[in-house]
Amino acid sequence: MPHINAGKTKPEYDVIVVGSGAAGGQTAYTLAMEGVKVLMLEAGRDYDPVTETPMFNTNEQAPLRGAGTPEKPYGFYDATIGGGWQVPGEPYTQGQNRPEDRFLWYRARMLGGRTNHWGRISLRNGPYDFKPYSRDGMGFDWPLDYEDVEPYYDKVEALIGVFGSIEGLENTPDSLNGTLMPPPKARAAELFALKHAKKLGIPFIPIHRAVMTERLNSKKIPKWLHPTNPKAQATLAQEMDQRLACFWATPCGRGCSIKANYQSTTVHIPPALASGNLDIITNVMARIVETTSSGKATAINFIDKTTGRDYSVKGRVIALAASALESVRIMMNSQSFHHPDGIANSTGLLGKYIMDTTGARVNGQIPTLENLPPHNEDGAGGGHIYSPWWLYKEQLAGKLDFPRGYHIETGGTRKMPGPTSFEGFEQITGGAYGKKLKEEARRYYGSFVSYSGRGEMIPNEDCYATIDPKVKDKWGIPVLKFHWKWNDAEIRQAAHMHKTFAEIIIEQGGKVLSEVDPTGKEAIFRPGEIIHEIGGAIMGEDRNSSVTNQFMQTWDVPNLFLTDGASFPSNADKNPTLSIMAIAWRSCDYMMEEMKKGSI
Amino acid sequence: MSEKFEYKRMDRRSAINWMFAATATVHFLNSKALGLGFNWEDVNKGYGPDPNLMTPEVPWERIMTPKQLRTTAKLADITLPRTSVESPSATEVGVPDFFDEWISAPYHAHQEDYKVITEGLAWIDEESQRRFGKDFHELEEADYTTICNDIAYLPDALPEFEEGAKFFSKFRSLTMGGYYSTNVGTKDIGYVGNAALLTFGGPPREVLKRLGIDKAPW
Question: ipTM of this predicted complex?
């Protein structure tokens, strides 16, 4: 059972999954491998990383030498299809005019969604991250603990392949011994930063990224993941053998034709398809969840983007995994007698508490890194080191003026130059040109660094989405309108990032090239810009104060699940993708138990 | 749907958009790439949101005039002259054509560059005529150097050369971008990579020594 056309669906499926990225991929995988009949709907086109990834193509071969444009914001070779910040014909609107409050929504329209291009940073939430309210009285606790999710982090990491190290740091959980792959060696700029940041008490360690630094053990892992299911073991083992280890070249953002990194299209979807239990329809836009006269979810109504025709497909369970905000949009648009304000919205909480990660960056130049002998620093694509948040104790003791932490990612390697690499270069060289400029280019190449913070925001009443009463997309589906306000908690954190990153640069004897902003107001990135948007249908202990339970099952409609980040009630500084997969897997295990019991 | 965003604030934050410094994990995000302040109507000749990445094509026409290209070639080779067989001049690796592709592109940021570059090219010819009675491309080193020095660096430029200095700043960054993004330029600047390896060994011993590091921590 493969990719099918919109009109060729079975009369009914066990589960219909909307979306094919980290959440949709994991949901389809977990269910299909265990024999559940699944239909996956994807709004974008079919996409094959094996044949479509421009692995070794150079900037010289690309339009504008690969520069980012509004149609390919992360550069020509970036895997994203659909336009990213602005998808043609699919607008979103803003509830306010202040430019800094305008929410940026990054979307892909392709099988596998944003997993094809993402940074592959795979960090676990720690014990504190599930109980933030208990710790500092702000935001919401999760109705589950780290211990509930830990086995699923173990499983996801074993399935997708993650490199990293075991460090034993506070609220920075270690992985299951033996499942992490060896971390790649740190590069020159990374080693130098690590050495000097230590003096500031900042602990740079190997980052965790979903890139295979060695082959997956296809004999051991499938048996461990699917202990009672020989068919799933065989299917997974076969697909795992298709994946090769990283050969230390070409940026991960292009995707990976040798399947060395995680993307849903190379890791989740192939075994799920091979199980024979998954149908996929691409190029269809889910419009609403249809309900019975008693308010139970019964089908998904979608539009075939190719023909413009409307279809409904029945499912015993509906799992929305369209990305947090797209799932919220579908729910808000699913209005009926029983659900006048959108499906599963009896609390009126739908659309509330949307979150992104805070971001700020400082650039610098390090004289010690000038004129280094040329050497290969491609490595595993992204950064090889990061610093987890290191001031938990100071924060708890009230010594900082912001409540939540951030981690530090580093930039600065001898990457392949691009057409915009030299903007502002004359500020370093005092306006050199001619032979001297060539010498300066060689001298300074590889000596520029950056430090970026990725921090936790507190969910607040001013960050929410509604349906715009006037604007529809090109298929006539009402669009989302965003409302946003950063609070002092986030702005002060961004100020701390700037101050800290400048110190890291100065400690290395370097020059700070960015304007350091002591207020944080200029430092903080735009809402949505980090592309870690979650929330909008938060989970909780009881049905009066949340949209779903801890299994991402909506309180109002027991056969409607949200297996993406929509139900996350907090957004730890840890990049959310790994948590989305782990918690989706847990949700699916519960869903299958409930289906067996006959309660849904 | 078009949205006109104000993006000055972001430009200031990233006063130096140095690609090698951008955090690799989020690739390189600058205000131009964000697509702020453009209309989809303006980009109907762009390559679209789903171009063929394997055999790329540039769908827009190049619009620079022969005179503009001649002046570009001259100034590009002054900016990055031939210094050895391995390090050819800007025109030898096709930088003028890169300019033509770049400023002819239908995207908003490129249209802004079009204005800066074409106005600057016209200005430098006028300035050349005013000083020497010739177009810029006809000047000898002693003469063009006087003009280039006057516009080499904005903070040092006299008020009457500020516009010229802004132009040269943009021109230089595009010349360098066009030069060092070729396979020849990439090698010239010292980039080593884009080749499959069995292992990734980290920096060689000589580099570690320069950094004052005896042994990498892992």
Answer: 0.95
